[in-house]
């Protein structure tokens, strides 16, 4: 009886292993598991006859049965693994994308380098606690000149320098009138930047255009001093161009600030060492203008100049974009030639 059962078990094992090795699909392997190892499976039905054995034979047959079951379980699970792996690979190869295939998909555009620069500058100032405000490109002479303490005989007011629409209306020559609007509307304290198009009667050459872009900043609060201005611009330049950049302030005159300064920044090519680009001075000249807001400008906007003081700064975004991207001709920014724009 014992020998009988032993043979029967080994026979089941051999048949089962052969069947398992021939399987080609996951469903089949499950069917085999049920057939041999399931509750009504062949191995189970042999074991049901264990009761007919004498007591000494039971452990011996039991051990063989366990070994057979373990072997079959292992064969089934390794075959399952093999089949799933094959299925996965087949699926992947079916889903492979042919990158050489030609499609008619529309090409996506991207930010113009000027807009990218404006957004980078705005983000920088937002991170320093400034709010971004905007104003109209068609302005009053009042906001563009008078409120900014620009004397009647100032050369920038001349017909040959400014696009007048009527006697009182013009295309703004700088973004400063946005500061006037902000001070009138919001009062003090104030911390704003404003970027946008500005217009001057300039002939087009490599560095000039009748339409150009500025970004201006204004801070008005109690106890604001030149030290705050220098510190703010210094951080700004380091954030924009790198921590090794230096700033230099040269006295200048603007009607709307007093004192006023022009700001030079370390030459970006040589980073201050001196090179042909900067005439071996190590400085990029006149990258920004700045100063302490003239008390007359504060008073004009209804802000108490005894209590409040402020600083303002402005920069040409076209110039900064050119320096940043190494361009030598401002026209490239406005011609909208895709061969140029696609490089960014
Ligand atoms: Zn240089």
From TrEMBL:
Record NCBIfam families: pheS
Source organism of this protein record: Tissierella praeacuta DSM 18095
Binding sites annotated in the UniProt record for Mg(2+): 258
PROSITE patterns to which the protein is assigned, alphabetical: AA_TRNA_LIGASE_II
The protein's Enzyme Commission number: 6.1.1.20
Entry's Gene Ontology BP terms: phenylalanyl-tRNA aminoacylation
One Pfam family in the UniProt entry: tRNA-synt_2d
Gene it is expressed from: pheS
Protein's UniProt name: Phenylalanine--tRNA ligase alpha subunit
Assembly behavior: Tetramer of two alpha and two beta subunits.
Annotated CDD domains: PheRS_alpha_core (cd00496)
Cofactor field: Mg(2+)
Reactions mediated catalytically: tRNA(Phe) + L-phenylalanine + ATP = L-phenylalanyl-tRNA(Phe) + AMP + diphosphate + H(+)
Keyword tags: Aminoacyl-tRNA synthetase, ATP-binding, Cytoplasm, Ligase, Magnesium, Metal-binding, Nucleotide-binding, Protein biosynthesis
Record family assignment: Belongs to the class-II aminoacyl-tRNA synthetase family. Phe-tRNA synthetase alpha subunit type 1 subfamily.
Subcellular location: Cytoplasm
Cofactor remark: Binds 2 magnesium ions per tetramer.
Keyword Magnesium: yes
Broad enzyme group: ligase
GO molecular function annotations of the record: ATP binding; catalytic activity, acting on a protein; magnesium ion binding; phenylalanine-tRNA ligase activity; transferase activity; tRNA binding
């Amino acid at each position: 009886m014992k020998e009988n059962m032993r043979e029967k078990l080994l026979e089941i094992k051999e048949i089962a292993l052969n069947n398992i090795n021939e399987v080609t699909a996951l469903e089949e392997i499950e069917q085999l598991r049920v057939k041999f190892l399931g509750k009504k499976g062949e191995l189970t039905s042999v074991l049901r006859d264990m009761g007919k054995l004498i007591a000494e034979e039971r452990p011996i047959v039991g051990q063989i049965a366990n070994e057979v079951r373990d072997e079959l379980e292992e064969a089934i699970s390794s075959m399952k693994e093999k089949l799933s792996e094959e299925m996965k690979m087949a699926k992947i190869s079916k889903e492979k994308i042919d990158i050489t295939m030609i499609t008619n998909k529309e090409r996506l555009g991207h930010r113009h380098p000027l807009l990218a620069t404006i957004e980078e500058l705005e983000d920088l100032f937002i991170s320093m606690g400034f709010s971004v405000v905007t104003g109209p490109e068609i302005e009053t002479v009042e906001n563009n000149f008078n409120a900014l303490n620009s004397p009647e005989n100032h050369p920038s007011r001349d017909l040959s320098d400014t696009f007048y629409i009527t006697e009182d209306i013009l295309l703004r020559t700088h973004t400063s009138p946005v500061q006037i609007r902000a001070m009138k509307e919001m009062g003090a304290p104030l911390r704003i930047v404003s970027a946008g198009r500005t217009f001057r009667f300039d002939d087009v050459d490599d560095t000039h255009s009748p339409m150009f872009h500025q970004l201006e900043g204004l801070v008005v609060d109690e106890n604001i001093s030149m030290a705050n201005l220098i510190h703010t611009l210094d951080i700004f330049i380091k954030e924009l161009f790198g921590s090794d950049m230096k700033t230099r302030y040269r006295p200048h005159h603007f009607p709307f600030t007093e004192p006023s300064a022009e700001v030079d920044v370390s030459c970006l090519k040589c980073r201050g060492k001196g090179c042909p680009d900067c005439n071996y001075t190590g400085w990029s000249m006149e990258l920004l203008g700045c100063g302490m807001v003239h008390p007359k400008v504060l008073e004009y906007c209804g802000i108490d100049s005894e209590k409040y003081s402020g600083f303002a700064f402005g920069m040409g975004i076209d110039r900064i974009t050119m320096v940043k991207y190494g361009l030598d001709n401002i026209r490239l920014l406005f011609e909208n030639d895709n061969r140029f724009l696609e490089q960014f």
